[in-house]
Design a protein that fits this description.
By secondary structure, the chain is of the alpha+beta class. Helices cover 43% and strands 12% of the residues.
Length: 313
Amino acid sequence: MAPSESVPSEISGYRVIPISLPPLPSYPVPATHYLYLRPHEPKVTTPTAARALFLVNIPIDSTEPHIKNLLSVQIGLPQGRIEEVQFENSRKKVEGAEGSAAQTKNAQKKGRKRKRGPEDGDIGELEGTALPPTWDRELRTDGLTAVVVFVDRASMEAAYKAMKSIGKSKDFPVWGKGLAGKVPALGSARYLNHHRLQYPDRNELLESVNAFMAEYSAREAAQARARARQRQVPDEDGFITVTKGGRTDPVRQEAAQQLAEKQKAKQKGLEDFYRFQTREKKKAKAAELMKKFEEDKEKVRRMKERRGTFKPE
């Protein structure tokens, strides 16, 4: 996009920052790209929000070295003042994990059922055992935003002030300047390297597979131990979870039976706790009274018969 005099310096609270895109062999024409940034103000406050900048419309080939180079070297600030760069896809993964943990915690508090995880003996997904990557560089096709976290608030404010002054000058920073050879190349070199990475070294592949199988075996053993504990330890109501596997030893069964008997003893005196129990009790009492009434009636009839046949001498 060519620079225009009509481009405003600020849009909806975002500072407009023009940067120059160098010509490429496939498109040998320089262009101007516009970034939008502001201090990071998330809906849910985080500990790093006060010392972070929020970038919108980052180029598709953005990498962490690109962002660090733009917000330090190219604006005259010292290197090493940026702690990390969080791209949109990585932030979603972290937020998703935190949300899942919070949901599990809330479900435990409310006593609701939740999905089983590794702590319950479930094998689940094995982290850290993925196959070797087949791409040497990630493209930002799923999000064009990034959060740049600085080491302190003073560094963030200095970078923000320097970036604001760029829009007023005609000397725009060049995207990727000084990074030649420091980041993987794009174009045909990217796909040639991708083809090579699809066939990893045998030792590297074997190491990855062995790590996966070791982790899987550990998870499987943890799952078996968790199931064994469920078979042996009754819950507070005296019930034992029915799981796959052999039966428990007699000692455990006796302990479970004793606990069940104790639970039954605690429940004594609660026969009228539910409404249907009261109803059934009243019905049984009424039936017993009717039965006794019929017996007394029959007894009186027999007494009358004997009285009628009595003949004194």
